[in-house]
Specification:
Two copies of one chain form a homodimer.
Chain A: E1 2-11, H1 15-33, E2 35-42, H2 46-52, H3 58-64, E3 69-74, H4 84-96, E4 101-107, E5 125-131, E6 135-145, H5 151-164, E7 174-183, H6 184-200, E8 204-209, H7 215-229, E9 236-241, H8 242-251, E10 258-261, H9 263-276, E11 284-288, E12 294-298, H10 315-327, H11 331-347, H12 361-375
Parallel strand pairs in A: 1-2, 1-3, 3-12, 5-10, 8-9, 8-10
Antiparallel strand pairs in A: 4-5, 4-11, 6-7, 11-12
Helix pairs in contact in A: 1-10, 1-11, 1-12, 6-7, 8-9, 10-11, 11-12
The complex binds 3-isopropylmalic acid (IPM) (2 copies).
Amino acid sequence: MTQYKVPVIGGDGIGPEIVREGQKVLDAAGEIFGFDIDWLEFPHGADHYLETGELVSEETIKELSGYKAIYLGALGDPRLAPGILEKGILLKLRFAFDEYINLRPIKLLDGVETPLKGKTAKDIDFVVVRENTEDFYIGIGGRAKKGQKNDLLEVQRDLYSAKFGLDIETDSEEIAYQIGMISKEGTKRVMEYSYDLAAKRNNHLSSVDKANVLSDIYGFWRETFEEVGKGYPSVETDFNYVDAVTMWFVKNPEFFDVVVTPNMFGDIITDLGAMIQGGLGLAPGGNINPNGTSMFEPIHGSAPKYKGMDRANPLATIWAGALLIETLGEKEAADTIVKAIEKNILDKKVNTVDMGGSAKCSEVGTDVARLVRELG
Amino acid sequence: MTQYKVPVIGGDGIGPEIVREGQKVLDAAGEIFGFDIDWLEFPHGADHYLETGELVSEETIKELSGYKAIYLGALGDPRLAPGILEKGILLKLRFAFDEYINLRPIKLLDGVETPLKGKTAKDIDFVVVRENTEDFYIGIGGRAKKGQKNDLLEVQRDLYSAKFGLDIETDSEEIAYQIGMISKEGTKRVMEYSYDLAAKRNNHLSSVDKANVLSDIYGFWRETFEEVGKGYPSVETDFNYVDAVTMWFVKNPEFFDVVVTPNMFGDIITDLGAMIQGGLGLAPGGNINPNGTSMFEPIHGSAPKYKGMDRANPLATIWAGALLIETLGEKEAADTIVKAIEKNILDKKVNTVDMGGSAKCSEVGTDVARLVRELG
Ligand SMILES: CC(C)[C@H](C(=O)O)[C@@H](O)C(=O)O
Ligand SMILES: CC(C)[C@H](C(=O)O)[C@@H](O)C(=O)O
């Protein structure tokens, strides 16, 4: 019997209850496929922060770094200002473990309703690979005002004034700025991952940028995409401006196989992707460091108003669990879990309210676990 | 008889032929509503650039600045690298005339098919106000490499290295960066415009940001949104993360009345908006400086492969013409043009191929002009 140790961060709102269902399903898969998971619970989230002042400490990070995969529920609490938990825990962990791949399958499961006319499961089946540690997510920015001393701002203000013939040296004028950066190594590794993935799927890789306007950063992105592509002559490629990508997701999702995108655009287009695959209740995400600690989560938020009501849809989290177990090497178990999710939906018997049913969150988890045993 | 002078830049690809149909319709509206337009043709675009080396010269800008509204077809040519014409002409004019409002009505006309299930004309009727002169469109960015001398880069590299404990001082490492900036005045004026517009419509204004991650720039945006809002107590407001906005556009477009957005996110969400209102063939845009020179265009590109074939859909351009004439003060003419477009679509007799018909571009223009005379 293979033994795995998996840290679990239930988090806020509905997080703990949905992740519990994911654990239930993974345990069932373990029974069938011969592995056992030792779950290590971590208390991080809003309550823990408000009680102890800890978002995620260096010790916690050190401890978590000993494991290959973390299971995360959801973060976010109305008592805290926007950004505190997101940056202090979620982005912190993504960066700390250098989880440079954010993997988001956009797959319309059989039986799930998409909001798009005339599209069926065969039309919506692609994977978005979002770069996850650079770009505009590096958190560098600030404000400038006349009289304030800051080298970085001075230089930038001069550039800005010169470029637009503006005089921003007035008392009333204030500006805010944000910097995005990408590195050669950081861009190369996500490209390599994406080309490899495309080579394993249907040999078609689409890159997203806005090289016609944000030319410095995304011109570099596009160049690197082409450079790395030389090593993959069999993969067909195209560039796409991010604005156009949102249109094609809606009009021609069947065009896509693997999509590689910078961090910020990836954030935007994967939410749109979640919607076309049937909504956030069904969209899982993996934050992956192929040689280190990865982290799996549903891409939806913590829905604080449903906390503790046992009515949230656990399917995205269960699916994230499938991605997790696949990363640990249990591909068959992962495939069976996705099939069980699909069967649960097709059966139309045990579904949560958002899917048109009336079942509880825990009942859906139990049903998917049963199906895993049945199909496995 | 009121007399207007309107500069026309047909531009590239299908630009000249679609803008010609727009002129035809505006001329018809003039006959009915008692105005006459003197069209001033400008040759700018790829051919002109390749022949003369001029994108848009300072003299041209000076000349254009004498008019209230410019009519633009489309720019973009496969012979030139991405960004050349976009930055050299389109963005250049937007910035030169300080056209700080990019106005994009997202309205599903009666008879037009949306790709969204279960949505009809009454569900999709809102306006996006995109800030048009700041944010990540200011064109400041660059690359850095060990040994390269550049003050701005030095400071940024230090910040970046310190923040992530990275050593980017190696020979092989190269980075690219991009800076976005917004100013208090620049943000205030677009907010004021948007609140005013919401007050004239249904008193609901939604702001788009990503203040939980790009906190410096969009925290400032959000603050300004709130500050300006104090002057509009009757307008209901909400903040939305850009990723969520793409979902609501697809799932709940009826939620929106007026949407105010920073430049780059605006670029993305208005293309998605165009798609839900029936496609790019139907989406007009206005680049507005309320006290200066504005510019109206379809939001689609120049479709070089259809150039000169008289088969492109001119409706977006005709609609942009309606926005133009409204800006000149001819509201009744503008409303009549939109009604004529709607009737042309409902009649299902004279439509281009993309709308399921077989008519030529020029036939559609003639038909809409006829309808303007009939309805006016
Ligand atoms: C919560 C937020 C910081 C996060 C992001 O922007 O990456 C989320 O939207 C996501 O996509 O995982
Ligand atoms: C052509 C391009 C520079 C432009 C933009 O990004 O603003 C276009 O996409 C638009 O939305 O008008």
